[in-house]
Amino acid sequence: MIVFDQLKKNDPHLRTITWGVLAGLAILFIGLWWVQVVSHRRYAENQKAQSFRSVRIPAVRGKILDRKGAALAENRPSYNVILYLDELREQFRAEYASARKPRMIAVALPFWKRWLGFSPVKAEYTRLNATQRLALERSCRFRVASNAVHQVEAILQQPIGFSFDDFMRHYTNQLPLPMPVIQNLDSNQIARLLEGRANPPGLDLEIQPMREYTGGSLAAHVLGYLMRDNSSMEGEVADFSFRMPDFRGRTGIEGAFDTELRGKAGEKVVLVNSLGYRQTETVWSPAEPGRNVTLTMDAGIQAATDAALQSAMPNTRGAAVVLDPNTGDILAMASAPSFDPHAFLKGFTHAEWDRMTDEHMKPLLNRVTQGTFAPGSIFKIVTSLSALEHGLDPLEKIYNPKWIHVAGRAKPIKDLADAGDYDFKRAFIHSSNTYFISNGIRHGGIEGLVNLGRRLHLGERTGLLPRQEAGGNFPFSALTRRGWVDSDTAHICIGQGEVAVTPLQIAILVAAVANGGKIMWPRLVDRIESGDPNSGEPPTIFPHRPPRDELGVSAHTLQVIRSAMLADVEEDVGSGKLARTPGFHVCGKTGTAEVTDTHGQMIDRTTWFASYAPFENPRYVIVLMVEGGAFGGTTCAPAVGKIYKAIQQMEQKARPSVAQAQ
Amino acid sequence: MRSLTPFPLGANERQSRVDWLLLGALGFLMVVGALFVYSATMVSENTAQPAWYNQPWFRQILWYGLGSLAMLGIAAMDYRLLARWSLVGYVIIIVMLIAVLIPQIGTERFNARRWIDLKFLQFQPSEFAKIAFILAMGNFLSRPGDELKSIRIFWRVLGMIVLPFLLIMKEPDLGSALILLPVGLTMMFAAGVPPRFINTLIGVSSLLVGLILVDVLFAPPSWQIKLELYQKRRLLVYFGLDGAPRNATPAEKAEARRTQHNYSYNVEQALISVGSGGLLGKGWRQGTQNALGYLPRAVAHNDFIFSVIAEEKGFMGSVIVVTLYSVVLFCGIRIAGQARDRLGKLLAVGVVAMFFSHVFINIGMNIRIMPVTGVPLPLLSYGGSSVLCSLIAAGILQSVYIHRRS
Predict the structure, then answer these.
(1) DSSP state of A296
(2) pLDDT in tens, A374-385
(3) Is the torsion defined by CA of A445, A447, A452, A454 positive or negative?
(4) Which of A103, A104, A448, A577 could tie A386 with a disulfide, CB 3.0–4.6 Å?
């Protein structure tokens, strides 16, 4: 070995030099080993961190379907034109070169140089400092990009707003991603673009799913809305360099089942060069589409309900709910005024947002579950249940002098029913306050009412839609409260005072009367399943739950009330006769509650119509409430009638096809 | 002593043979150099490339060819003949080093005046100064050992070192200037200059360097030596300082840190390149650091060629490169040991010191054990002057070997 030859040699100087060289080389070896082997991982990660950008790709959102599979919320492809800036780099450079054209100046040359063929023209470049160069580069890039955009304009024959700021924002923040040029092309434009004769380089057509609510504002409160939110969900990779636009459900079904509907975002990795331009990209994990949510709702009934509610009065503020009394399945649920959920995808102007948050109209409030109102005469159904169970004879008559004086109250309570003798049926269909207050107090009293209130789970939520439900109010403490007097009970008997309910709670109550006393859980979601029938993924079924409670009243009591409800609609003197539907025995009860201010002055009315049909075999419960209506019988009953007529037509249309199928 | 003959054909067959091991190592290094200059410059960019004969890898091969011819020519010459003309060479190179500083003659690139432009080619006198310096020093120091003990001779030696050192510093080319110091010192040591002189010299120069560093890095601005801004920054980068005065506002400090960060960029990226190569590397032309431009294109194929090799061939590649240099160095030391006279030994030692300094400083700056100075890696870095000088230096080694003791 030559190394040791030197060391053995009897030349101390050379030996020292050899040792020195050896030591130096050893340092290099150790240093290299340290950097390349020991610290390799750290540097490899640094290298990855600086040259890879991860992009979050949102999954296609699941659909929301009605019970027959018709889409209430689906995705429509939006065709967008995008521009890959990295493919324009060549043009950026060319543009810059032409922008920095040298000045050609003639120089005096000695004759021999001219003779040798040296050119007498010299290129002189203007000198630029760093700032000027940067500004020139920017404007060149923008020129190239806006030329490309102009070409797109020419192809699509549509002006596109494209500013220097737009470009710079994209260039500085999202360079490795394609630059969006224009969204939502129509089919003509797509065709023109696909011809592709004059397409600038780097141009591409991208398809992005956009949420589409097929009925517009139909059932908007149930479906909910989405808002722009690109953030990662729990359990997802969190540190993306870039995120593609995504949305998150905020309310309604979109909000409650956001995790299922949203699917699983994918991840794409873009390799970028030192200038940040895209080099290559690979999809690491593809996005998994979200699952479809099938509701118990029926799109046809929903549309009819919505239309009927709208027609109840101009600028209706109200709620309507249709449910199946036997199962608790909600067939339709409408709250007015409604809103267009598409608006949340785009964002609002100030004026639009003011309209959305209007204190009087409250369009975002789901009045079916979130609004609590005095039930008024509707509550006489509960009073009837209590009184009949506590020994009221429905045939017994009492005299109504058009008012009733209750102990502990200075002023008598008015009765809108004509003066005269009233038995149960007459009192029910004329909604006599005198009859129900005196019999309510005499038979059962506050104990009977509280007992029923417990069974009906008044003041409690049903858990139908999270953060979109109110429990209402009921004076359960009346039994133990000191100072509770008959006049307080009197108010409860006619649905005023310390009782506030949601239209949904009333629907559950009517369903119980109709189905023989079962307090049902309302059900809105039937199942959640993969949109791909071949996925083999088992669907998540939400089965019908056993009744939440029992009314605990006799069949006879129910029979009396049902007959009274039928009479209320079927008899010409009934307050709900405007809901009458030929061929469909509708049973109902009207209600008009007074909304008073703190001084006891009436400021508004809450009008109600609570019903079920058909009498013989109840299949539908419809409760409709309108704030500021005239009377339950005139404002709400006709609207409910329209819904029953629509349902009747739908059933008739469906029947022959069922027969054919069999 | 035998009479000098320009072409010593009288030597016997075995004696005249060149050092094949050295030649082999050099050849291997040239192959590696050509391959990685190609890899560093032919990155997957769809930009218009110049014609193949104008591309760096081809020019590098041309320089290898020219350099090899020069090496053979020098090797065939008797080194004593070279030494006899060394003083002339030294004077010429000093004149050229002065000339390069004159704006009409020297060409300025990257704020440094290092090149003389002869229209058809440009060359760096500072590279050739190293060769001239070794020859002149060897010639001067090969006088009888007693004379070296005189302080007058010592001062003259010192003068021989300091004159080109200052001129090259003026260009400025800190790297090339600094190389002269270890080369000069090693040659003095090998020549037998009394240790007290050398130790004093080392002591004084380290003290000087230390004082300069402290002055540059920490002294208030009015007390600092005027150093080129970029040189100062390189030093700041190496010592991890941002160079902001102590009473600077937070904004100024942030700005200074940002500048420091920008200037440490090359070092950072070189380190990432080398480190991310790992044990086996990413494969030839697969290095992303260079292809994506993180390792700046302007330096990837010359001063930072080693990081390209280390990234693409990993630790194994680095070991092979360092081993090849080791072979060259130890061959040089062996040649020094076998030299027929002190002149030959000193020349060989000078060449070994020069190679070693280049290799150590260049690879050292890639792994951050040395500050960044523009020192090329012999035979691997792209550049005609550097390749030519390395091969001429190797030619001197061969000449000493061919004319060794029998």
Answers:
(1) S
(2) 999 999 999 999
(3) positive
(4) A448
Residue showing tokens 């609609």: A569
Q: What distance lies between CA A258 and its chain's CA centroid?
A: 9
- In the numeric block, the tokens 């040792």 are attached to A19
Q: What is the rounded CA–CA span in Å between residue A501 and residue A495?
A: 10
* Amino acid at site A263: G
Measured CA to CA in angstroms, residue A637 lies from A218, A579, A587 at distances of 21, 5, 11
Residue A279: which of B292, B325, B331 has the nearest Cβ? B292
Q: For residues A553 and A392, give the distance between their C-alpha atoms in angstroms, rounded to a whole number.
A: 13
Place of tokens 């190569």: B277
Please say whether the beta carbons of B217 and B235 come within 8 A.
yes
User: Which three-class secondary structure state does DSSP give residue A206?
Assistant: strand
Whole-angstrom distance, CA of residue A198 vs CA of residue A82:
15
Cα distance between residue A355 and residue B299, in whole Å: 63
A557 neighbors A389 (Cβ within 8 angstroms): yes
pLDDT in tens, chain B (406 residues): 344 444 444 444 445 588 889 999 999 999 999 999 988 887 655 444 667 777 888 889 999 999 999 999 999 889 999 888 999 999 999 998 888 888 777 777 666 667 777 666 677 888 889 999 999 999 999 888 788 888 888 889 889 998 998 888 777 777 788 889 899 999 999 988 888 888 888 888 888 778 777 776 666 666 665 566 666 666 666 666 655 555 666 666 666 666 556 557 778 888 888 888 888 888 888 887 877 777 777 777 888 899 999 999 999 999 999 999 999 999 999 999 888 889 999 999 999 999 999 999 999 988 888 877 778 999 999 988 899 999 999 999 999 999 887 6
AA letter at A439? N
Token duo for residue B341? 């006279």
Interface of A with B (CB under 8 A): 2-3, 5-6, 9, 11, 13-14, 16-18, 21, 24-25, 27-29, 31-37, 39-40, 42-44, 46-47, 50-51, 90, 93, 271-275, 279
Residue B245, preceding bond cis, omega within 30 degrees? no
Q: Which residues of B91-115 are buried (b: 16+ CB within 10 A; e: fewer)?
A: eebbebbeebeeeeebeeeeebbbb
What is the DSSP secondary structure assignment for residue B224, as one 8-state letter? S
Are B9 and B391 contacting, i.e. CB atoms less than 8 angstroms apart?
Answer: no
Task: Give the Cβ contact number of residue A568 at 10 Å.
Answer: 28
Are the beta carbons of A490 and A437 closer than 8 angstroms?
yes
Is the full-model pTM beyond 0.80? no
- DSSP letters spanning B155-220: HHHHHHHHHHHHHHHHTT-HHHHHHHHHHHHHHHHHHT--HHHHHHHHHHHHHHHHHHHHHHHHS-
Judging by DSSP bridges, how do beta strands A64-65 and A292-295 pair with one another? parallel
